[in-house]
Fold this sequence. Notes:
There is one protein chain. 38% of the residues lie in helices and 23% in strands. It is of the alpha/beta class. It has two domains: 354 residues, Rossmann fold; 132 residues, GMP Synthetase, Chain A, domain 3 (2-Layer Sandwich), CATH 3.30.300.
Amino acid sequence: MKKRIRKINKxxxxxxxxxxxxLNYLISKGKETLFGNEHxxxxxxxxxxxxxxxxxxxxEEITHYVDRVRNGEENILWPGKIKWFAKSSGTTNNKSKxxxxxxxxxxxGHFKGGKDMLSLYGNNFPxxxxxxxxxxxxxxxxxxxxxxxxxxxxxxxxxxxxFPFWVNYHRxxxxxxxxxxxxxxxLERIAQQAVNENITNLTGVPSWxxxxxxxxxxxxxxxxxxxxxxxxxxxxxxxxxxxPYRSQFEELIPSKKMNYLEAYNASEGLIGLQDKSPSEGxxxxxxxGIFYEFIPMEKFSIGIMEPINLKDVELNxxxxxxxxxxxxxxxxxxxxxIEFTTLYPFRIKISGRTKNCINTFxxxxxxxxxxxxxxxxxxxxxxxxxxYTVAPIYISENSGGHQWYIEFEQPPKNTxxxxxxxxxxxxxxxxxxxxxxxxxxxxxxxxxxEIKNNEFYKWLSxxxxxxxxxxxxxxxxxxxxxxxxxxxx
Length: 489
């Protein structure tokens, strides 16, 4: 662990040189692939020629390559055969997208990042007793691809399935339970396995972790988690905004020695780790086989795809990330918006998504999902809408939900059946939303608030947004618009 701190300090001291080394490595490996042949990798010698030969792409634009890799073809995007695919929320045309996970991206990125997070934690808290107990790790499930030649599922499940033995020795639950797809039974089994253990650390998405911790308290008969696990000191989290959950965790774990560390571990690669406590942002991890480019949002928003590399970024300016990875993603538009909180070393925070999105509970609901779902429901119920917006209802007991504010032009005859069909459409369109809706464990049935008194117009007027180019945001991760609308009713 201490040796790794020295290597982290090395790339902090030489960030541009480190990224240039990563780019040269990726180009050399890409020459061995179909993609490399099609994009003249033999003629790429530096960043300028790299940009010239390879266009920036979204998932929709690489799907035909990914489909070939999923069907078992080798040397398409990355040398060799790909054995794993991380399944995450879908694109415009797909319910889910499947991100190739190569051996290099698994071991030199995701696994390396897990060890680095513990290294950084140990460096910040040298008196930690985290290794004197076990950790609870929550993950999803995996299945075989249709061809039977690879495995696909949540990134967390792939990591659990492939962890070396020494990690599993310190982990709860057992692998069979960890990879179960039935979440209700899974959480109950994890709770039973963990309640009497000496747990020192937790890893998982906040929404699921809260449900598990509340179940632990219930079956233990204790008042809180600190009474159940007095040596608990660390929760490693990522994937969603943690702030809406913080107060609930602090209530469940009223321990002064409790620490919270954030990771930016996307399906496409592990991008950042919190290296300071209190946080100064997440350290951009520069030696994981990922080459970074950044498009200023003022350009991206008007369709100008002109990225810069690390040496030209500025503080407190919004960028969307473009990545090239050792998993075979080439100049891939990941869809996240970040800001740099420090330079030299480079630390970042996530500011949002390039597309409207609600990801309060890990559902990754996109605006194209909601647009399609409401259109399909209107067609079925012979109704039409003027406008809509969606906001989260934060978790109170064991679940949260979405509030739909809809102004109907022609209302449906039965609004309850309309919302039932809307919910079904969303589940069909988005696998992450579907998972969170399972048995109401995370997301309850969506709630309808009808807009009947021009509230949307009033919001636009009060926010100086009247005019043809302005509209009410479809999706929000906060309740500012929702609470304003409710205040007018």
